[in-house]
From TrEMBL:
This is AB hydrolase-1 domain-containing protein. Residues 81-254 form the AB hydrolase-1 domain. It comes from Pyrenophora tritici-repentis (strain Pt-1C-BFP). The keyword Signal applies. Pfam families: Abhydrolase_1.
Length: 314
């Protein structure tokens, strides 16, 4: 049974609210480059570039690329490169220092000897939005972020929301940590198919450039992008780490009930085995309805409390 929710990365984003509070980050050699993209007509006799993706590379400062460890078989090995993929309305700053002033994940991976690649998804952050090539940009309001990610216990939009305690600070407008996080939110393209197609192509180009197997670490929307990139270059992926990935399969849940992700884990084609051509027919779905524990058929107001998980098999 699979029940996936889109939740916020617990204070893993943005610049800190107090620059003096930043702990020492792990020293690294920094460079950047762009992958993917193509020239298109600007409809005015010239050409422009579209669908390119910004990548920031952080390498361990002590003999980068030559740090050796012993694996479980006692064989000498170099740490596998790590690619960090952010969620919707976010950028690669998610994985640098946190809005509460603490160190981010990039430093921790660098300390372990990993080369880290932090990307800005296509048409996001430092990956340019090309005029005339994308749908209208969307954004999240501060109230949306509060109710779903940083202070859900105040809104109680789902049964477990009242148990939420992990966000540092109050998680609402005016709180220094919340304001630092919300300031890092950026507009995004709401067309899921267009975004997934562009990120998959650019991600495949990134793996081609790296030239060795990598770990793909994706959060929220990034947890959907990681399998798509792996699907395009399966031999170039050591493994996937999916943190609160977009889901569940086939339709939205919790905040709606509309059809979504017709390929199960994505809105774009996925290479299943055996091969699937028509996902609406060939992917078999099974729904399981569970009553909330202790509900005994209802919530006391005559309304049954339940959650729906969508299963699929091939």
């Amino acid at each position: 049974m699979i029940f996936l929710q889109i939740l916020a990365f617990l204070a893993v984003t943005a610049a800190p609210q107090n620059n003096n509070s930043i702990p020492h980050e792990t020293p690294a050699i920094r460079s950047y480059f762009y992958v993917g993209g193509n020239y298109i007509s600007d409809n005015n006799g010239g050409h422009i570039f579209a669908n390119q993706m910004y990548v920031e590379k952080l390498s361990p400062i002590n003999n980068p690329g030559t740090i050796y460890y012993k694996n479980i078989n006692n064989d000498t090995t170099t740490p596998v490169p790590v690619i960090l993929i952010h969620g919707q309305a976010q950028t690669g700053t998610n994985f640098l220092n946190k809005p509460d002033g603490n160190r981010g994940w990039a430093s921790q991976f660098l300390e372990a000897g990993h080369t880290v690649y932090i990307l800005d998804q296509t048409a996001r952050g430092r990956s340019a939005v090309t005029p005339g090539t994308t749908t209208q940009l969307s954004t999240y309001s501060a109230e949306y972020i509060e109710s779903r990610f940083t202070a859900p216990q105040r809104s109680n939009l789902w049964p477990q929301a009242k148990l939420y305690t992990q966000w540092p600070g109050a998680g609402i407008m005016g709180d220094a940590i919340f304001d630092a996080f919300y300031a890092s939110n950026v507009p995004f393209i709401a067309n899921a198919t267009a975004q997934q197609t562009a990120v998959q192509a650019a991600g495949a180009a990134l793996l081609d450039r790296i030239g060795r197997p990598v770990w793909l670490v994706g959060h929220s929307q990034g947890g959907l992008m990681a399998p798509l990139i792996a699907d395009a270059r399966p031999q170039a992926v050591k493994g996937l780490v999916l943190l609160e990935p977009t889901g569940p399969p086939f339709r939205d849940a919790v905040f709606g009930d509309k059809a979504a992700r017709k390929w199960g884990v994505a809105d774009v084609p996925v290479a299943y085995e055996p091969r699937v051509v028509n996902p609406g027919v060939e992917l078999v779905r099974e729904e399981v309805v569970l009553e909330e524990e202790g509900a005994k058929g209802g919530n006391g107001n005559g309304n049954k409390t339940f959650m729906i998980s969508v299963l699929w098999r091939f």
